[in-house]
Prior knowledge:
This protein is mostly beta strands and 396 residues long. The protein is 8% helix and 37% strand.
Amino acid sequence: xxxxxxxxxxxxxxxxxxxxxxxxxxxxxxxxxxxxxxxxxxxxxxxxxxxxxxxxxxxxxxxxxxxxxxxxxxxxxxxxxxxxxxxxxxxxxxxxxxxxxxxxxxxxxxxxxxxxxxxxxxxxxxxxxxxxxxxxxxxxxxxxxxxxxxxxxxxxxxxxxxxxxxxxxxxxxxxxxxxxxxxxxxxxxxxxxxxxxxxxxxxxxxxxxxxxxxxxxxxxxxxxxxxxxxxxxxxxxxxxxxxxxxxxxxxxxxxxxxxxxxxxxxxxxxxxxxxxxxxxxxxxxxxxxxxxxxxxxxxxxxxxxxxxxxxxxxxxxxxxxxxxxxxxxxxxxxxxxxxxxxxxxxxxxxxxxxxxxxxxxxxxxxxxxxxxxxxxxxxxxxxxxxxxxxxxxxxx
Length: 396
Ligand SMILES: [Ca+2]
Ligand SMILES: [Ca+2]
Ligand SMILES: [Ca+2]
């Protein structure tokens, strides 16, 4: 008996030792703001995309390429999610399973052709009740091209969704397509209403704490001045002096009935140079609501959260933005998690929190989505490095 106990003890030591020595580390060269600690929360998921927590602290992660949503548990509360189980699986990767949100005991999830909800009714950790709330016929979809990642948000009994432009910048009458717009529905899928338009690609919508305001980040157009620059050689810095710096990525406050400029007006009321001769350019400019904040061109601001609580000093009400970094700049831009500082409901500054750009050249990660964990830390997914990171304030 004694020997057996000793063997079990030794085996446990070995397993603990091995799991510790194999625990993934933050790559050398990742920059983290002073006062914060960056650790790896999860490193077994291939291309983790969007994330949501339920009330018990289970983290759900969508994996587009595998058509799955994984349920992750941090059983000992150390910030590392050691248990990863499929909650939903078998969805077509082409359906772009992305947006997830927990609401009223259900995990809602968005695909290009559906918004559904799922529940685990027998406690085995897997969804066994899955219902389609909205199908392809109800949803704004259009051609399966372009920016196909469906945003999903539920707020005050309404489902909000958006699908981006079917091309880089589609010049068509505003009402010609249901894309480039935010729509809302009742929770049972009825009562479809147009909410806002002129939006290129806002993959996540969020509510600003203490309000009913809907906010989102919008990727703006690529190749904007290529027609003037006369070159498509993105390796030659002199080839795109305008396109490298324009147009900015946007943080928008989306309001009912408003138009946000795309594709004709970009950033803070600047004409999209592709449409400089468009007969209705000024009409569209007069209609446009400009962003509340802009971020560097081609940073690919992909997702955001508003921070709630006190675990990050003065963090309550600030936005954190996952910037994936884009292809259309000769310089590397983005590849970071940034914080947009708010006062009286409006942004006034931006700080880099984590940067995955080493020496301005080497890309060590691409933040895709961010969420606030129940313990007040921020988790963000990196779908290039196959990790979920955890950023925690540790300063005094
Ligand atoms: Ca753990
Ligand atoms: Ca189940
Ligand atoms: Ca805009």
